[in-house]
Amino acid sequence: xRPLSAAQVLALWDAGQTRHPIDRSLxxxxxxxxxxAPDELADRPVGWREINxxxxxxxxxxxxxxxxxxxxxxxxxxxxxxxxTTLLQSLPxxxxxxxxxxxxxQWRLPSSRDQAMILDAPDPETAVEWLLDRCRVxxxxxxxxxxxxxxxxxKSKCSPARIGEIESQMEVLDPxxxxxxxxxxxxxxxxxxxxxxxxxxxxDELGIRARQLLESVHRLASAYGWREAEIxxxxxxxxAAYLNMIG
Length: 247
Ligand SMILES: [Zn+2]
What we know:
- The chain has helices at about 5-15, 20-30, 40, 45-60, 85-90, 110-115, 125-135, 160-175, 200-225, 230-235, 235-245; strands at about 65-70, 75-85, 100, 105-110, 135, 180-185, 190-195.
- By secondary structure, the protein is α+β, with helices and mostly antiparallel strands.
- It has three domains: about 5-95 and about 195-210, no CATH class; about 100-175, no CATH class; about 215-245, no CATH class.
- It has a three-stranded antiparallel β-sheet with strand order 3-4-5.
- A hairpin with a 6-residue loop joins strand 1 (about 65-70) and strand 2.
- Helix 1 (about 5-15) packs across helix 9 (about 200-225), helix 2 packs across helix 9 (about 200-225) and helix 4 runs parallel beside helix 9.
- The chain binds zinc ion.
């Protein structure tokens, strides 16, 4: 994965301001993977998106991945630090054609599009119901490009036990869709698994980088009269050298 250029960082930061986090990640991947059809990115499994977002953030911002997670017991913010390259290597890329086969049906892995389609579910139980209904495939269609709005016409309801079975098999087939970090609170001793949202980490880091770039453009444009595109086209080393010269 190639790092985003300075111009791409600013363009992505600008374009992503009003978008939902899922769309922001897909937009970032569209920038980073121009060889992929943008529409098809949304149909890849969620873990595929997370793995490629992790690869993109590692390439653009470096391997060190630091963040915070609130302790669910006492609310203290606990810091975590991990190596993004090591994490990336530990995550298997999901098979886009993977199926969960049970005696009464087959399900494919949830995609970004599926996640987006269940955002307006009234409660988590309904969201899961909609998700499994969208992901259910039969012999006549792959499910990957279904145009049927299944939110309005659910095929059938799964029992809680069946839902748990499908979800656990989805986790096995696509573990990167739900990356967990083992955490321990240094204030109260509570231990828990925190969800690592790669897209949100990326967006936070992108915002920091974008503000740095905007400040660089402001200072260099003020000092030399260069245009934004010219300043962004400079290598990071040259930009830093000129910034040092103007103090
Ligand atoms: Zn705590």
